[in-house]
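Why should sequence recovery work at all? Because a backbone constrains its sequence more than one might expect. Tight turns favour small or flexible residues, buried strands favour hydrophobic ones, and helices have their own preferences. The token representation captures these environments compactly. In the example below, the structure is given first.
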């Protein structure tokens, strides 16, 4: 059942309960009032005929009003209609013998006794409720029907009013699932519905930004893949065509080998990044000392920095033991140093520091303050700095962040004292190396 139908049913239910409760209360009140009016009427009649009870005309009038007369003798005996006599005996009728008026109720019979002569009399009348009850029930049923009809119409109108913006939201959501990103929902209606519309619009904006970022990322990855592939293809064709021969073969082979390795690293990083969130991504966590890993990486990167004219420095002030995967940790260090070397000009420093944390700093241009929090978002820095400096695809930093996180650590980016950017890795410490 749709929303409009459910709201209509809800309104019908509420109206039915309200009319039923109101009818029950009204019946009780009307019946009570009817009984009170009947007693007041009978009391006034008893007072009027107290001195004329022997008048046959009066008796006929009373009988015409369905009022029974019961005679009370001076000795306390009562005579008259059997049901009326029982009703009189059910009340304290002997008080009339001492000159007092008596009023009482026996079941549905009202009793009014008065002294008269040496004895007295009593008027007995049934409370007239049946006719009133039937009239009241008819009125309540009529009101119930009218109320239910009005509630049904109001519920349908309300449901249609509330469902219209929801249908607009659903229509936009279906269009979004089909690939449309240019549609937005008008923000209108009650606060809750407006909030839903805003949420869908925010989702559409987020999807649009995400897909735009993914397109930029794919373009940058395609460019990074095409560069080494172009070099490998070009030099391979030169070798195949015999253009390169003799002493030129070895340098060309070196270039092909380096570009192939570069291509392999990029493809490996892409695969690792894609598998990072999968359950089968393996990590061999153990207690390891950071210093040997850092010094091993420093030997390689010292040579690479020297070849680029960049000053490499290793700072070790502590030798912490942490819980990590040694192979993945080396991958993290290599990724951070490769990113630092890419942006650092000749003559400027790259620093690998080890204390209670692991840190890579560079003397490059650094980042804007608002870019440090998003430095590890895939493709963000590439999109912002591709026209002003050498940038990678963003795969490296995203992979580094994912690896550190999977090892239970944290990594943050910030400004470095050397003028560029600093990336600080904090891993879970352990008390001693494995096997100690």
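From this structural description, the recovered sequence reads:
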């Amino acid at each position: 059942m749709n929303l409009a139908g459910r709201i209509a049913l809800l309104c019908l239910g509420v109206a039915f309960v309200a009319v039923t409760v109101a009818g029950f209360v009204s019946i009780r009140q009307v019946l009570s009032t009817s009984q009170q009016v009947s007693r007041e009427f009978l009391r006034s009649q008893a007072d009027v005929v107290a001195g004329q009870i022997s008048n046959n005309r009066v008796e006929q009038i009373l009988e015409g009003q369905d009022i029974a007369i019961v005679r009370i003798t001076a000795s306390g005996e009562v005579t008259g209609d059997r049901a009326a006599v029982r009703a009189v005996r059910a009340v304290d009728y002997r008080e009339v013998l001492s000159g007092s008026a008596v009023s009482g109720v026996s079941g549905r019979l009202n009793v009014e006794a008065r002294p008269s002569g040496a004895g007295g009399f009593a008027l007995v009348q049934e409370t007239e409720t049946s006719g009133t009850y039937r009239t009241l029930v008819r009125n309540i049923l009529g009101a119930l029907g009218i109320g239910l009809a009005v509630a049904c119409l109001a519920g349908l109108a309300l449901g249609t009013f509330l469902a219209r913006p929801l249908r607009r939201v659903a229509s936009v959501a279906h269009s979004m699932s089909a690939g449309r990103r240019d549609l937005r929902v008008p923000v209108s209606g009650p606060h809750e519905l407006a909030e839903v519309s805003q949420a869908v619009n925010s989702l559409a904006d987020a999807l649009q930004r995400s897909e735009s970022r993914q397109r930029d990322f794919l373009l940058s990855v395609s460019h990074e893949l095409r560069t080494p592939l172009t070099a490998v293809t070009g030099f391979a064709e030169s070798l195949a065509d015999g253009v390169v021969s003799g002493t030129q073969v070895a340098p060309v082979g070196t270039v092909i080998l380096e570009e192939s390795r570069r291509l392999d690293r990029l493809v490996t990083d892409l695969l690792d990044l894609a598998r990072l969130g999968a359950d089968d991504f393996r990590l061999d966590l153990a207690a390891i000392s950071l210093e040997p890993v850092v010094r091993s990486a420093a030997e390689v990167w010292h040579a690479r920095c020297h070849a680029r004219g960049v000053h490499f420095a290793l700072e070790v002030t502590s030798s912490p033991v942490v819980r990590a995967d040694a192979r993945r940790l080396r991958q993290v260090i290599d990724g951070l140093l490769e990113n630092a070397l890419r942006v650092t000009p000749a003559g400027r420093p790259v620093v690998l520091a080890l204390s209670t944390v692991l840190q890579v700093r560079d003397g490059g241009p650094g980042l804007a303050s608002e870019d440090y929090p998003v430095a590890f978002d895939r493709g963000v820095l590439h999109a912002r700095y591709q026209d002003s400096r050498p940038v990678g695809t963003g795969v490296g930093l995203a992979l580094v962040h994912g690896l550190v996180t999977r090892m239970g650590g944290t990594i943050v980016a910030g400004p470095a004292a050397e003028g560029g950017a600093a990336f600080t890795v904090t891993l879970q410490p352990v008390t001693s190396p494995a096997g100690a």
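A few observations help interpret the result. The chain has a mean pLDDT of 79.
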